[in-house]
Design brief:
The complex is a heterodimer of chains A (about 170) and B (about 700).
Chain A (H helix, E strand, L loop, with lengths): L1 H9 L8 E8 L2 E6 L3 E6 L13 E7 L2 E7 H4 L12 E8 L4 E8 L1 E8 L4 E2 L13 E7 L2 E6 L1 H4 L13
Chain B lengths: L5 H24 L5 H20 L3 H18 L7 H23 L5 H21 L1 H8 L6 E8 L10 H9 L4 E6 L17 E7 L4 H7 L7 E7 L2 H10 L9 H4 L4 H17 L16 H31 L5 H28 L1 E3 L1 H4 L2 H12 L3 E6 L4 E3 H22 L3 H6 L6 E10 L2 E8 L6 H10 L11 H6 L22 H10 L3 E7 L3 E9 L4 E9 L2 E6 L3 E6 L5 E4 L3 E6 L2 E7 H5 L13 E7 L2 E7 L1 E9 L13 E6 L5 E5 L1 H11 L15
Parallel strand pairs in B: 6-8, 13-22, 17-19
Antiparallel strand pairs in B: 1-3, 1-4, 2-3, 5-7, 8-9, 9-11, 10-11, 12-13, 12-20, 14-18, 15-16, 16-17, 18-19, 21-22
The chains are: A mainly beta (about 170), B alpha+beta (about 700).
Chain lengths: ~170, ~700
């Protein structure tokens, strides 16, 4: 774990194998996140809503005694929301912040594959014209003619109302 | 030696701060020439000096050395404890503390002050030396010699404390050519021998011009665990010794002298290494049976126990459900299950209590700083103050303790500054010249009560009232009871100090004291009688980790309301619901109008239009002296809940003090009543209003 993080922060692509990414499906598109950040994958359970939180924060759940917030990625990206069913998947990820690490869950349609990507497989994201905030996209990769959008979960889950630090308000 | 000492620096610092506290306490109590007290002070200073040297805090070591020398002279009776000397020593304690704090935080020290105190110590030492010059003279001539004969007889325990004679000899060898002879006289019969004890003694012969101090320093860490004799070499002995002791010690050769007794020597390296690795502090400083445990570990344990409690309540729910549905054939089995569950419940409760107990510390940790403070403050203000402490062994949670320190300091300062009169005034009023401040602590119910009382002038009712009127806190014609007037001192922006002294009245008023105590879920109040003194009473929960809560249901969600903030719960009677400006509903409860707060509007997606107040219950809560009636759908029951922070994986949320996990594994949010009031004020009392945080881009 530490080793992996060190590699990842150093610069990826140094190791021969490249970095492993877990991919998941969201509205027909495939997204990837660094597999070392994935704590566990679980089914959808009812959440306890947090008052006055943004709509994409579905609430908090009890994950073996700690309180973990759950973010709906569809709603986070402004996509049409789906009803939660037995196949709805929550990926619990570790988000690294400036002061501390936090565990958070993201709701996705389905988990797909694990792929290795090294630096040359990845390309910087083109200007997406604001379709989704550029800063959340680490890069794009291609596997078997499929495009995979690699997400930077630290940025994604550490901004705005989800930020760890208290804001001035 | 490949041990990384940096890991012990933290421990050294903690121990040193404790040592300084001990020094301070003993110095303040020092009466006449109490040898035991001086010894205690000396030992503390000595440990700090030794540790400072080991961990590379040279300046601290050097400074403490002077202090230690002073203390040593007191210990040996060459110097008596005059008030000036005690003051100087107290000042040096402050200096050492400051230097260590600076070392810890990487901050700057007040070099000028330390230099001044250091110079004062030097000056004082100079005087002392003149007085005891005769005593020194005897040793003076032998201070430099062409060599030393050292008789080293360690106690059997020496290896267990991590001291390896071999290492000492290696250090000695650096000072000059060394010859070692091992003395096997103390060796017990093989059957009685403890392999980890040191039964050997040594005669060492060190040649060269090393000073006595240099030699003694090698033995610094073991000097109270051995008989040590350092004598200058005599010429004849020198010649003889050379024949008697053919061995020179560089680490491995010792074995040559011990061929007959391989066991103890073989045990030397073996036992010494783990011992020294395990204990950075190589001397048993205290006999206390306590250990230092990282607070994170305890928190982890507390979390685990919390989970156990949840599991237990989950299982007992299952058991109860089974009981209702079971057929006749599996009744015995069910009984067993229920029995087991009852036992589990008892075990978990006990376990939880004892784990919570680990975090409990006697309040003396918070009280310790006061003797010094009262001493200094009294001197500064020209008042005579006696401090009386009682109930120091009353225990409370470490977190609460850390947060109660500053409010306590403020209240004690206040008592001395405003409460206790000057000796002249006191004598004129027929009271003893010395005033008394009494700090008392005891448990009452689930709370700890801390009282700060003084026998001073008491609160000045008229002055408080005038000031309050002047500040616009009360109307001039308002009639107030004494209690209400006394309570005014906690109002924001209230300070009766006629001039701002540097003792109190620095803008940190009693309102802040009350606010901080409230934030801990406690309360503070004052009783006072003119001319007889005042008593401040602080009530605090024993711990911040668990809470007695009332479970309520609002809009299908369950919330926990802290029981301590609930005044009462009532059924709504429509005729008592009134509205103000058509928007804000208030409820008439006896003689009071209490604002009604729709929890679902404030916390949820907006008030449900179909909501009928008559179907609901009102939970009347109180915080910061204000009442609020919360509209809830149902009261579900009371239970003790384990508080989980939302900050761990999310952030603080206004209106909530945390969350907890219920028996069925779901999360319930814990309401923070004063936070709700703030939210309510922001919302302007309009149902359906929500603070918007949805402005950022998706």
């Amino acid at each position: 774990m530490n080793m992996g993080q060190a590699l990842e922060s150093d610069f990826s692509g140094v190791s021969g194998e490249g970095d492993q990414y877990l991919t998941f499906i969201l509205a027909g598109e495939e997204y990837g996140i660094d597999i070392l950040r994935v704590q566990e994958i679980r089914g959808w359970t009812k959440t306890t809503p947090i008052p006055n939180a943004p709509h994409y924060l579905k609430g908090v759940i009890n994950l073996r005694g700690t309180i973990v917030p759950i973010v709906d990625l569809r709603e986070r990206f402004g996509l049409e929301r789906l009803d939660y069913g037995p196949t709805t998947v929550v990926i619990v990820v570790r988000v690294q912040g400036e002061s501390r690490d936090r565990d958070m869950g993201i709701v996705v349609d389905a988990v797909s594959e694990v792929y290795n990507f090294n630096a040359k497989d990845r390309q910087a994201p083109p200007d997406l014209g604001g379709a989704i905030d550029d800063q959340f996209v680490q890069g794009l990769a291609t596997v078997e003619e499929k495009m995979i959008i690699l997400l930077d979960i630290d940025r994604l889950l550490n901004t705005g109302a989800l930020a760890a630090a208290e804001q001035a308000d | 030696m490949s041990i990384d000492v940096s890991q012990f620096v933290q421990t050294f610092l903690e121990e040193s701060f404790e040592g300084l506290d001990v020094m301070e306490a003993q110095l303040l109590d020092l009466q006449g020439d109490d040898v035991e007290a001086v010894n205690t002070i000396f030992r503390a200073a000595h440990s700090i000096k030794g540790g400072a040297g080991t961990f590379g805090f040279a300046a601290v070591g050097e400074f403490t050395h002077g202090v230690e020398t002073l203390l040593d002279e007191m210990r040996s009776g060459h110097r008596s404890a005059t008030p000036e000397l005690v003051k100087l020593l107290l000042e040096s304690v402050d200096c050492i503390r400051e230097m260590l704090q600076a070392a810890r935080d990487g901050a700057e020290v007040d070099a000028a002050r330390i230099a001044t105190v250091g110079a004062a110590i030097e000056a004082s030492l100079g005087k002392g030396e003149a007085a005891s010059a005769d005593g020194e003279a005897a040793h003076g001539e032998v201070n430099v010699s062409s060599g030393w004969h050292i008789r080293f007889v360690p106690e059997p325990e020496v290896l267990r404390t991590g001291n390896d004679p071999l290492r000492l000899f290696a250090a000695l060898e650096e000072l000059g050519p060394l010859q070692v002879q091992c003395d096997l006289d103390r060796l017990p019969p093989f059957a009685d021998m403890d392999a980890e004890a040191c039964w050997l003694a040594w005669d060492l012969r060190l040649e060269g011009d090393a000073s006595r101090e240099a030699v003694a320093e090698v033995f610094e860490w073991v000097e109270d665990q051995c008989e040590l004799l350092i004598e200058p070499l005599r010429e004849d002995e020198g010649a003889g010794a050379e024949e008697d002791a053919p061995e020179s010690v560089s680490p491995p050769p010792v074995s040559g002298a011990t061929s007959g007794t391989p066991v103890p020597i073989a045990s030397v390296p073996g036992s010494a290494v783990p011992a020294s690795a395990a204990s950075a502090k190589s001397r048993p400083a205290t006999e206390s049976s306590s250990i230092r445990v990282n607070i994170d570990k305890i928190d982890a344990l507390i979390n685990m126990v919390g989970e156990l409690v949840i599991t237990q309540s989950m299982l007992s729910q299952v058991g109860e459900r089974l009981e209702g549905s079971a057929g006749a054939d599996n009744l015995p089995c069910l009984e067993k299950l229920l029995e087991g569950l009852a036992q589990l419940e008892r075990n978990t409760r006990e376990l939880q209590e004892s784990v919570m107990g680990i975090r409990m510390l006697p309040i003396s940790f918070a009280f310790n700083r006061f003797p010094r403070m009262v001493h200094d403050l009294g001197a500064k203000l020209g008042k005579q103050v006696q401090l009386k402490l009682s109930g120091e062994q009353t225990e409370l949670d470490k977190t609460v303790m850390e947060k109660i320190g500053d409010p306590l300091v403020h209240l004690v300062r206040n008592s001395i500054d405003h409460g206790i009169e000057t000796p002249e005034v006191r004598v004129a009023a027929g009271k003893p010249a010395a005033g008394e401040v009494h700090l008392n602590a005891f448990h009452k119910g689930g709370n700890i009560v801390i009282q700060i009382s003084d026998d001073g002038a008491g609160l000045n009712r008229d002055r408080i009232l005038n000031k309050a009127v002047e500040r616009g806190l009360v109307a001039p014609d308002q009639v107030l009871s004494d209690e209400q007037i006394h309570d005014l001192i906690f109002a924001p922006g209230f300070s009766t100090a006629e001039q701002v002294s540097d003792v109190s009245g620095r803008g940190v008023g009693m309102d802040v004291v009350r606010k901080n105590i409230k934030a801990l879920g406690g309360s503070v109040e004052v009783q006072s009688r003119p001319g007889e003194g005042s008593t401040f009473t602080i009530r605090l929960p024993l711990t911040l980790a668990i809470l007695d809560g009332q479970l309520v249901e609002v809009d299908g969600e369950r919330y926990v309301v802290p029981l301590i903030s609930i005044v009462e719960s009532i059924q709504v009677r429509p005729e008592f619901v009134k509205s103000v400006a058509e928007r804000r509903l208030v409820y008439r409860l006896r003689d009071e109008y209490i604002p009604i707060l729709f929890l679902d509007a404030l916390l949820g997606a907006g008030a449900r239009p179909e909501r009928q107040l008559t179907d609901s219950l009102l939970v009347v809560v109180e915080a910061e002296g204000q009442k609020l009636a919360l509209v809830v759908d149902d009261l579900l029951g009371q239970q003790q809940v384990v508080i989980k922070a939302l900050e761990t994986n999310f952030r603080r949320v206004e209106g909530l003090s945390g969350a907890t996990i219920l028996g069925d594994g779901t999360v319930a949010l814990i309401l923070d009543v004063s936070g709700l009031m703030t939210l309510d004020k922001q919302a302007g009392g309009q149902p359906g209003w929500r603070p918007s945080r949805e402005h950022e881009a998706a």
